What does this fold into?
Amino acid sequence: MKPARANLYLSLGCVGFALLLAFVWAPMDSGTGLIHKVRRQVSIGDALAPTLAAIMIGAGGVMVFLERRAPDQPGLTRGNLVFLLRFLAIMAVGFALMRWSGPMLVAVLNGDQDYRALRDTAPWKYIGFFIGGTGIIVTLIASTEGRLSLRAVMIAIAATLALIALYDLPFDDLLLPPNGDV
Amino acid sequence: MGVGDYIWMGILAVFQGPEAFSLFGIAVSITIVMVLAGFLLGIMVGATPGLAGPMAMAIALPILISAFGFSPDALLPVMGFLIGVMKGATVGGAVPAILFNTPGTPDAYMTTLDGHPMTRAGQAKKALKLAHVSSASGDTFSDIVLILCAPFLAVLVERYLDLPEKAALLILSLGFIASVIGNSVGKGLISMGLGLLAVYIGTGEDFYPRLSLGTQTLAQGFPVATAVLGVLILGEVFKSLEDLWYDARANKPVTEPAQSGDQRLHWADIRRIAPYIARSAVIGTAIGALPGIGSTLAATLGYASGARRHAKRRPDAVQFGKGAPEGIAATEAANSSVSGANLIPVLSLGIPGNAAAVFLILATESIGGFNPGPGVFRFTTESVNPELVAAFGLFTTMMLANAFNWTIGGVFMRVAGVMVRAPKHILLPIVLMLTLTAIYVQEARMSAIWFAIGFGILGYLMRRVGMSPLPFVIAFILGGKLEDTARQAFAATGSDPWFLFTSPVAALFMALAVGFVALSLRRHRKGPQ
Amino acid sequence: MKRILKAAVAAVGFASLATSALAEWTPPGPIKLMIAFAAGGGADTQARLVAEDLEAKFGWKFIPEQVTGKGGMNMAMAMKDMPADGTVIGMGASETLGYNMRVANAGVAPSDFTAIATTASFQMGVVSATAKGWKTWDDLKAAAEAGETIRFGVMSPKLADLAYLLGKAQGIDLNIVQVRGGKDVLNGVMAGDMDVGFMAGIQAKGVASGDLVELASGLSKPLKHAPDAPTLADLGVDFNADGYFTFFGPGGMPAEARDAIAAAIAEVVTTDGMKSNGMVTKAFGAPDVVTGATLQTLVEAEYEAAGKLLEAASE
It folds into this structure.
């Protein structure tokens, strides 16, 4: 994409978003307007600050439009978007595994107790984090290396165990993902 | 309670705090241990390309808070550790720059210009020593300026600024930051506006959580950690990961040239570089005291000014860019002297100027009991102001970190050279998991992880379109305070719609804010022609 | 087998009623403790100390978690649909279930929650800095009548209403400045950004050292440290800021669970030598415990009464 074109899209997007925020989102989704009267005193309402944020985004958009032909302006490529999609897919699968593998294993192996009561009991509480965490790290390393190696798996397992040792073992009150949600 | 009493209590708070262990019958306080640990970690992190001080600070924070709790006793050990990391990373950044021509931190880029040529000429150890002395000098100088200036500035602010002026001052800082960071005011303003928008979601005075779209997920707003870590750290991780995916040479072997000759740092060397250090330290401190400009510009200016002087005074010596010791000194003194001065606006106004300062503020907010800002320097006479004691305690930890830097910093810098070999494509996924786990243990809900990833993507996109993420983060940190102060000033003046302009000081601040944005707009529009 | 045993235990607990519930009921897993106050503040410390004491004394396991904002309403809304088996409780103020829930109009009422126990009552005073020169409420009134603008700091909409009614009853103009918490009122008053403000107990240290002075009591009764200061009723206001730090849980919690937790909290905060008891005694003079059904009635009454205060303040 040509830099000037990238800046054009950016500025149009910002101005459009700013208008949406100032005239639709902020006024319709705030408890009080720009200003309001309580106890016979005029006060600043909840919609004022987001409206100012919208003005800032809009003004920034206009300025980018004016200076869109400046040299050295980077822009997004199709490759960037492909990367983002791949990355998000890895995250979605990884965190889904992290969230559900613990409860599923408990349901299969330990029928009469639910995962919630075990969320602070070893080894149950580590299952989701271990499977999901290892999975994410392995996949990310493998995608840069272009192949799945035993070394990557070993590193991922070691790293996840180290994270457990770092955040869970010394502290009573911390919950590893996903144990705060169950 | 005089000023002297407060200083003394601050020093005692560090040295006589809760005991970690005792050495030959002398109790060693936990704060000292934490400063040292932070400093060593900082050197390692700074020396590892792809990692940076703020990253380590962010990841350490939840661990530190769980270990020390939310009590007032927690403040000095936790802050001491973070300050140690900040200072360690500053020195450590020079290591890979000198040894392998890859800067460990962005502001060490200029160090590669003369540091690596020295390594190729077989003078690596000497270059490291030069960098260490310069960095430690700049850092110490900057801290002294901080300790002398911050209390004064704070007392002035507290005495002369009322609520409307405080609101105007916040607007001035934001205007200044939007116009100086990055290459485009327009993009700076967009970044800042998005930061404000993000912090206004779910907050507000009314009981309805504004902009929450009626959902319970957004009603509690975005936790600070998700926005700050997401944009600053995950954004950078995503970008580096992508670069690695598309870069087949990710694992190119690192080679080290053979080293020879006299590696010692002589008194004559120090005399030669001293003027460069002094000049750069002043430049770095002056730049650091202004919020938002940052150490990279300081390094550039220090280097440029040193190069000019060098070419004029000593045209026959090795010139900058060819392996001149003076070049390393000018760069390292400049970028290291930013960190202390950067805390002047933090401690006297509560306004962070760079990423490291953002994490220090985050830490004080998480622990509670210490609110960086003018209220800290209230010299009460009847009772003890614990925040003021803590402030002098913080100054003590900074000086302590400097002492570690002078004594053992050099040795550890040389040891940290091994970190350069850590392969980035393995490190980054682990850092990613580490950051997300750190966020989860603080927030205990999966939505926080998704918020962080969302902000990470925002930070990634900002980097790809050449927009600095720092105005976003600073706006996120200051946005709530700005709205609160403005509301309070408006209410306190009996709903005067012109409250930002009725007092001369407030009006001046507002005029300056507009002036900065307008000026930098003109500068940029002229720029391309 | 396990299940049958559990059912038997529950049945026994039910039969022997509240008095011995403490001995019979045990939480079926770790208890999530939601805290509606900012981390590191006095109220947060109190909640964490109560949890610590309960862990030490009864061997229960607590996992504290901050859910701050909107006067406790964020916590209430987050807690609403969580399991009501005693494994989720929260600490807020009685105001959360009373005034705030009424005004927030978020489709919930105190009956959707289970009030468990209070730990301490607010020492709500109208406080100014000694440096200001006022010694009594009359000094402030005189200054206002002489034309000085008075800035009055408050930390919740309910207190803003009370401050407004106070000014109206006394015939003086007050510029009411609302901030986020008691700490901010204290800082504002100390820094001179505000002339006077409501403080719920945070003023204790400053009053003792002579930096702060309590001009009036925001409660229905006099303050412990300033028994001579007039109450809001003395100053012509029909409402007051009486309130408690209150533990509550999701609605429909079984009575055995509620009573067991309430009895356990009551025991630790009133027992000499427990950490929470020490803290409460230092900051608020003494623990003040109201539990179970009595507390439920109390917050529901405040919820109903909130309408009258709102009406009075909007006149």
